[in-house]
Amino acid sequence: MTAPLSHETNPGPDQGPGAGTRILVVGGGYVGLYTALRLQRKLKGGEAEITVVTPDPYMTYQPFLPEAAAGSLSPRHVVVPLRRVLDKCRIVIGEATAINHAERTATVTTLAGPEDGTGATRLTYDELVLAPGSVSRTLPIPGLAEHGIGFKSIEEAIGLRNHVIEQMDIASSTRDPAVRDAALTFVFVGGGYAGVEALAELEDMARYASRYYHNVDRDDMSWILVEAADRILPEVGHEMGQYAIRELRNRNIDVRLETRLDSCDHRVAVLSDGARFPNRTLVWTAGVKPNPVLAASDLPLNDRGRLRCTAQLAVEGTAHAWAAGDAAAVPDLTSDQPGTETAPNAQHAVRQAKVLAENVIASLHGRPLSNYEHAYAGSVASLGLHKGVAHIYGRKVKGYPAWFMHRAYHLSRIPTFNRKAKVLAEWTLAGLFKREIVSLGSLEHPRAEFEWAAGGDRPQRD
């Protein structure tokens, strides 16, 4: 029988690999998954009890979100089920809301709700690995909270795909020119990886889908990219960023640099350059911020709210606490400029997880710790099917070769051979058959039709 979640202690041997050192991993993303995976492989049975606290029962491979939104990949192939991969760990589906490292306790809210009158569940630990990732950084822009769409989760990616196709359906069925124009106007705010790749893939998908509409042409749609800086995709360098802008503008995508979103009240995007775009789709990808659990801890933070860490990925000045990924400010030992930190991206996260896990094991066994040191190899970005840009080891690549490199690199990074094989098989089949362009927006409200049949209001789509 499975023991219930304890307030004071983690469960016994039946819930994990053993009753040894209690290791708590907060976060099930890149760092959380890879760290826990390496720990369960390297630590012998009974040597440690590994608990992973994560809001979702899966790890999302975020570089594939644009392809999932465009229908090039099935949602189930973009995520990695944690219980299957981390079969020797205990998985707790919940949100860590506070950390008291002085007492070695973490406050967690779970799907089951509070277990006592305090409204919280406490987990205790001996070693803490903090890898909660980041959350969307929003600004107090009028209308943003009501109308903005994020792009950090698989649910948001699939919801956005359904939404875009629904807007094409609305435009096809209305006689009101104002409704039609707003439905076919898509505004993306943020010119980093998420914004550019999401816009490029979805525009590619919508352009393909338009051939099946008798009264919606590709030229009827307006796609706008808003970026506050003077360039997009800074990670691929200035030259490749300029190429990306030219490529997008050649597809009639309106790229507006050094421009901000001032308001989106009443579904009208008002930009700092005075332009106004009535729309029904506003996607916000303008940056991220540290997970709130970091501020609710007694661990040292830098001025940007990230954990101050050493090159060994230990939390600075704190015993038995480790961190990596978006949550951690890790010194970049390969940089010539003092004080430089490693970029919070997947390239570093996967490699940091390996060093972090090895250092946790070394600490338990009393061995010296290793420094994390990785020279940045470069970046790749997709601009839609068969289009991309890359800057790898000083070489600049564009077009189909860059797109191929993008897919090859991310295929090599996704966890487990099983997942790699499924993604590769789906890509192969997608090359042989036509895209699916069906909207399944009802999945977001599966009881709506039943409630209507039972006498409620007719379900309305946003």
Report what the structure shows.
It contains 13 helices and 24 strands. It is of the alpha/beta class and 462 residues long. Strands 7-6-5-2-1-8-20 form a seven-stranded mixed sheet. A five-stranded parallel sheet has the order 10-17-11-12-13. It has a three-stranded antiparallel sheet with strand order 14-15-16. The radius of gyration is 23 Å and the shape is globular.
Approximately what portion of the residues adopt beta-strand conformation? 15-25%
User: Strands of the largest sheet, in order across it?
Assistant: 7-6-5-2-1-8-20
Number of helices: 13
Q: How large, in whole angstroms, is the Cα Rg?
A: 23 Å
The coarse overall form would be: globular
Please provide the count of β strands.
Answer: 24
> Average pLDDT, to the nearest integer?
88
Q: Could you state the oligomeric state of the chains shown? A: single chain
> Any low-confidence stretches, pLDDT <50, length ≥5?
1-18
The helix-and-strand class reads alpha/beta
